[in-house]
Amino acid sequence: MGHEYTMIKTSKVTIKEVAKDAGVSVGTVSRVLAKTAEVKQPLRERVNRSIIKLKYKPNLAARALRANHVNVIGLMVPDITNPYFAQVANLLESEASKKGYALILASSHGDVNHEARQFSALLDHSPKGIVLIPTSDTIKMELPKNIRISILDRPLAEMNAIALDQGKSSALAADHLVELGHRKIAYIAGPHDIQTSIEREAGFSNRIAELQSKNDSIELTIFRGQFDYTSGEAIARDILSLVQSKRPTAIAAASDQQAIGAIRAATDMGVSVPNEVSVIGFDDIVLAELLVPRLTTIRQPVYDMVIEALDQILGRDDSICNQRYMGELIVRSTTAAV
Amino acid sequence: MGHEYTMIKTSKVTIKEVAKDAGVSVGTVSRVLAKTAEVKQPLRERVNRSIIKLKYKPNLAARALRANHVNVIGLMVPDITNPYFAQVANLLESEASKKGYALILASSHGDVNHEARQFSALLDHSPKGIVLIPTSDTIKMELPKNIRISILDRPLAEMNAIALDQGKSSALAADHLVELGHRKIAYIAGPHDIQTSIEREAGFSNRIAELQSKNDSIELTIFRGQFDYTSGEAIARDILSLVQSKRPTAIAAASDQQAIGAIRAATDMGVSVPNEVSVIGFDDIVLAELLVPRLTTIRQPVYDMVIEALDQILGRDDSICNQRYMGELIVRSTTAAV
DNA sequence: ATGTCAATATGAATCGTTTCATTTATATGA
DNA sequence: TCATATAAATGAAACGATTCATATTGACAT
Fold first, then answer.
1. Contact A5 B137 (CB under 8 A)
2. What is the CATH number of domain B166-300?
3. Within A 55-84, residues with CB less than 7 Å from strand C
4. How far, in Å, CA of B235 to CA of B189, rounded?
């Protein structure tokens, strides 16, 4: 198994040498490089030949110094090991690289102070823009106005923001469970200080309230935790240890990770999913389809949202735009009729 | 819920203004900034006061132009949604940021040509170094010698490389299954063109061969696929559709994702894990502990490996170093005695 | 008081681009 | 054919930091 790599000497070819080789001025070479500017055909070709011949590659630092920004986009996530954020990173990296932008990844690790520091460090790199998934609604950092920011997944007013219509999307889960005949329902909410989380919870409980007006036997209990696996597991454990008569027949979670934790707990306690308790998640992370059993959930149109974020950052129109998307119910195997 | 952010005007404070404010030369300010150089106490303080007063922040692009490199580390992974690579990214980002380095994330999406292009783009950003998890053993790109490269998870000779002793670690899985009494064993291997994959397979089958010399009733069948979920699922489906008498009682996989896919398949086919078939994975991704049932696997010391990679890039010693680590057997609930 | 040496501070050159004010070449119309 | 308008190419300044050769200062010995 031979390794096919070659060592190269550090090519230190500058625009000046290209200019000399082609017998033109540096300005002309620069204008050939910036495809938009006018250079006549013969000269342009001569320059291009020299560029290829000398293997010239522009120095991004010099360019950045002049232009005041680099072809780089920043992405700040609370935690890259969260499959939902990893998926965002994956799509963003892929789409950005198609357009010639690199991605700087920063993680707030769920800490607002660390987030502020990381954000400031990100800014120092003069990126073209930053896609920010805030760790909570209280943002501690100062937002620059020369660098475009697109807030993902957390609707902040007066900013470029992209998020689900959390309320309506969450209502889909409520509808689904009630249609299946569930009348005792538990909801595992996310943290109180995140708007997204509040909206999901409100959307769910409001829809249940509507349905109650037609069918007053529906009971809803709300529990609150973090968005992660362990929180879902702990809460589900509480829920399922209620006596049979009071125990809910369905659990809706504000995230797939909570739902996965809940299934984990149910299985440990000998409660069968979906026979004895139905579980529905939120996000549709890749894993949802690979679980045993496969997870019923609400899918976010992540691809569309990432494309929109990129557009808010790279597009020429810098008007503020607050987009809302609609979730989609994906029925799999963790929900069933009572 | 008030949003606590403030808009700031683009502070365009340069070293020159700091110098003027403090009444010193730009050179002096620069030397105050570079903590190492000698500037006498009173002056140094005066400069520092001005820096704080004017909120001066150095321009990284200008610095990069002079110094020929940026405080940035590149990371190239085959796929960031793979939980193992996400964990590497998470740790690397975290450790690098402690040392003042940002992380540029690039993904090869499993394509060697794309990998080469992305690598070259990474190089253009003049990072201090690059941590590379190659998508296969045949590297198509030219490796620079002025930028340090640390190859993770794929041992390439004559390069800084960090990897598990795949063979010995894999043998742990073989030992475990045989100790549990399994005599008909299937192995789901990874792709043929990755050294890592070959070594894991060889380590497993060699250990089985050793054990056969004492106990000739052990049978091993090897199947080959990709490292991902779906490949594991498809192969497991083949394995488990064998007639009862020929069907293996244990499946060892070359990755946790394959193992998860295999459990998925078993469950779909009504084969109980671990009662009717044991499954063991490799990597110990975060998810392994959250699955139902929890996955028995071989853990990689990812943290140690990431620290070592950073050291190979940032450390002062630029001798080539080819480190091997040992995996650890983590027994959970997907393996049981026959 | 003067010369010497070391310790500090200075300022100009430099890194590799882009861009803008000029100059030079080309085409158009009278 | 010449003046004029337009297009194309040039060259130097600028971006903001670092660094090195030079200048300044102060202390000490003569």
1. no
2. 3.40.50.2300
3. 56-59, 62-63, 65-67
4. 10
